[in-house]
C-alpha cells in the first residue's frame, strides 16, 4: 500500500463549489481537501446534503459547468492532472478508464434493453485495444472474480433477469474491467439487503486489494465504513470536519459532529434509552421544540399481558397467472401461515429482508389486502368484521414520508383527515386538533398551514405520526418508519416513538430490516423469512443468541461498529 | 399576480406565458363581446361593395363576394366556432375523466370495459368517423357539438387513467383508506386534484384540435349549415375567389392559425407552471 504513497491517486485541494440557481447560489462545498493513495480504501461519510456526492461527481467533472461555480484556487488532481482544467477528450479517457464509478441503484445504472455482454463490451472496447474474443474472456474472468457461479449465463442475461445483488456484482465487474486506478462507489449497497450487502462489500474489498485499486466509498453508514475503510473523511455542510484512520475517528472522535453522529446510532445503547440527537442547532430546518415528556422515559410496564392482536396461521396470496378467461390459475404466496400475538403496551418487531412478506402482513392488518387463509383477531373480535370505530384503533406510519403525505394539502388537513371520517367537520375544530397533535410530535403548531414540501424528511415523518395519532389508536404499525431518514433524524424519530409509547401506552408493531434499530426499540422480535416466521422471542435473546440458521446469517451480515472493534 | 414577481417575469418562459394568456384574453373578449363590435350585419350584403379590399369603404377586413363585411362575419363565426369547440371540449373532459377514473379505481371488468371502449374509439380515424356521424344525424350546432363531444374524448381518458393509477398507489391514498375515507371522497379530494394540472394542459391543447376539427367539417360543408358564418364556412366560400380576393381566404385562415397557436401556447404555459409548481412540491 505504501509503494505509491508519494504519488496519490487523488489530491483534491481547497475545492469549493456553488450551484447557481435562477436567483440563488447554493454553496455545496466549502474548501475541502482530500487525498487518496494508491490501493487505499477511503470512506467519505455524511448525511444527505452534506456534499459527499457532489465531491464524487466533481472528481469526474460530472456536474453541469454552466450551473456550477468553482473558484480558480480549487484543484482536483487525478494522477497529478487537474480534472478541472482537462480537455473533454482527455476527460473521456479518465472517465471509465482510470476512474470508474459504482452507483447506488443497480437497476437504473444498467441499461435495461441491453444484455450484460453489450454493456461490458461497450466499456472495455472503448478503453482497451483488444479483440472481441479476448474481451469476452476478460469479461467472463471478471464475472468469475465477482464470485458469480454461472458467469456465462450472467454474461448473456438482461439486467431484469438478475437480482439486485447480481446487478451490483456486474456493476463492480464493469468498474474493474479497465484496471482503473480509482473506483468511486456512491452508496453501493444502500439499496440492497444486509446479507447481500455483506457479500458485496467483502467482494469490493477483496478485488480492490488484489488489484491495488484505490476506492472512494461514499456512504451515510458508519458501520459500513468501519468494516471496509482504511481512512475516513467526515463531511458536514460542505466541509470536511474530521479525517483520519478509521479506528481513530470512530474510536475516538474529535469533532462534535462526528461524536453526535456516533451517539445517534442505536447500536450499543441501552434498549429503549433516549438517543442523543445531533444538536438541534446543527440540523437545518429541524424544529427544536421538544416532545411532550421531557422526563427520562419510564420503561413501559410489559403490558397488562392481555393480547391485543392475535394472528393465527395468516396466509396472503396474490394472483400471479391467469387463464384466457381471466381466472386465476396460480398464486404467489407472500405470507405463509404466520402466527403471532401482540400484547397490549408492548413493541413487537418483525425483521426480514425485502420480499419476505413483512409489508404484506402489515397491509393485511390494516385491511388493504384481504387474508387468503387463517384468522386475525383484534381484542377478541374478527379483524374483518370490526366496526369502523374499532378499526380506526389500528393505524400505520409508512416508510417514505415523501409519498405518504398528499403534496397538495396543508399540514392541518393531512393530520386531521382521519378525524373527518370520525365525524368532526368544523374547520376551526380540526385546525385546533392539528395544532395539538403537532405539539405532541414536536412540531411548531404555527406551521399547520404549510405544505409538505416545506418540511424536511424527519419533520414529514412527524406529520405522518401525528396523523396516525389523531384518532387515538391503540396499535400503531410502523412500516420501516426510519429507513428513509438520516441517522441523526432517525434518532429523533425513535425518541419520539418511545416518548409517545410511554405517555399513551401505545402498542407498536415495528417492521424493519435494520437490526440495531429493532434491538433498540423492541420487547419481542419475530424474524421473517420467505413468508414464514422462523424465530420469535424476547429481542435480546433472538438477536444475541439466534437459534435459526437464517437469523444467524442475518446477524452475521449486519455491519456493526462493535464487531470491528472487538476484532481489533 | 403575486406569484408573478419581477424575477419570474424576467425569464423567457414567463414571457411566453404572459403572451399566451394575453392572446387568450383577447380571443375570449372578441368571442363574448363580438356582437357589440360588429360594424355591419354579418348576413346582410351590399352588392355594390363586393370584393372590397381591407380597410376600404368602412370594411375593416374587406368584404366578400356578396359584399358582406368580413370583420363582422369573422366575429359571428368566432362565437359559433368557439362555442362549439368549448362545449364539445367540456363533454370530452367529463366523459374522459369519468372513464379514466373508473379504469384506474376499479380493476376487473369495469377497467376492461372502460379501456376497451377507449381503444376501440381510438382505433378509428377520428375525422372519418365524425364525417359519417354528421352525415347521418344531420348538421347544425348541436349535432356537431355532440359528435365531437362523444367521439374525441379518448385522450382525456388515457391521461386520467395513467395519472390516477399512479396516485392510487401512493401511501397517502392508502393512509386515507385505512382511516376509513370513502372511495368517492378519496377520488375528489386526493386523485382529482392530482390530475388537475394535466387536465388543464390537455384541455387547452385539445381545444385547438377541436377548433380545427370544427373548421375542417364546416369547410367540407358538413359542419355548420350553409350560410351560417363560421370560420370553416367563410374559408370554404373563399375558395373560388382565392386569386381575385385573397384576403377572403387569408383572414379566416390566419385567424384559425392565430387562435390555434394561442391555445397551444396556453397549454405550454400551464404545463410550464405546473412543472415549476410540481418541482417545488414533489422535490
Q: TL;DR of this structure?
A:
The complex is a heterodimer of chains A (568) and B (283). Chain A is an alpha/beta fold.
How would a crystallographer describe the biggest sheet of chain A?
6 strands, mixed
What is the gyration radius of chain B calculated from CA atoms?
Answer: 22 Å
Would you report the number of β strands of chain B?
A: 0
Question: Domains counted in the coordinates of chain B: how many?
Answer: 1
Strand content of chain B: under 5%
Helix content of chain B: over 70%
Identify the CATH class of chain B: Mainly Alpha
Q: What structural class do you assign from the helix and strand content of chain B?
A: mainly alpha
Instruction: Tell me the strand order in the biggest sheet of chain A.
Output: 7-8-9-3-10-11
**Looking at CATH, which topology of the largest domain in chain A would you report?**
Rossmann fold
- Give the mean pLDDT of chain A: 84
pLDDT < 50 runs, ≥5 residues of chain B: 1-6
CATH class categorisation of the largest domain in chain A: Alpha Beta
Order of helices and strands of chain B: HHHHHHHHHHH
- The CATH architecture of chain B is Orthogonal Bundle
| CATH level-four homologous superfamily name of the largest domain in chain A | P-loop containing nucleotide triphosphate hydrolases
Sum up the overall morphology of chain A in one term. Answer: globular
The low-pLDDT segments of chain A are 1-5, 283-303
Content-based structural category of chain A: alpha/beta
Please report the total strand number of chain A as a whole number: 21
Mean pLDDT of chain B: 84
